[in-house]
Amino acid sequence: MIKMEGRLLNLGTVDSCGRKFAEDCKITFPNKVPVYWNFDQGDPRSVIGDANIFRDDKGLACKVNLTTDLLTEDEHYVGGYYTNVKKHNDKSICIIDACTLRSMSIVPEPADKSLKIKREEKII
User: Fold this and answer.
1) 64/78 Cα distance (integer angstroms)
2) What is the pLDDT of residue 35?
3) Which of 36, 55, 38 is nearest to 46 (CA)?
4) 3-state secondary structure of 120
């Protein structure tokens, strides 16, 4: 098992898709979510781990347990899969006011390059 940790969501910043999670966004999430490869939720074999999710002053952070040996890099981009999204538009920006996190994914191209997980340091 590979243990990683990092940032899943930043509040109050606009991503490359023109979306922004409001700083007071009401986010519902379970303590643990499945981790997929590139949002491939149609195939149960694409579950590559699980993640403990917690909220902090910047948004959502995560501690990830990867169960695959195929991802050998020390750092990976991530994204969240959200449902029950309540949003409004402000000029050309989609503002997300409320949502429910269902899962997260390791992604090759992130909407926000600051959303990444890194391998935890091993203590010897």
Assistant:
1) 11
2) 96
3) 36
4) coil
Cβ atoms of residues 35 and 51 within 8 Å: yes
Please tell me the distance from the alpha carbon of residue 35 to that of residue 7, in angstroms, as a whole number: 14
Q: And the tokens for 34? A: 């499945």
Cα–Cα distance between 51 and 65 in angstroms, integer?
6
Which letter does DSSP use for residue 18 in this model? S
Average pLDDT over residues 102-106: 95
Residue with tokens 């952070």: 61
Segment 16-73, tens digit of pLDDT: 999 999 999 999 999 999 999 998 888 777 899 999 999 999 999 999 999 988 888 8
* 46 HSE (CA, 13 A, CB side): 13
CA distance 71 to 55: 26
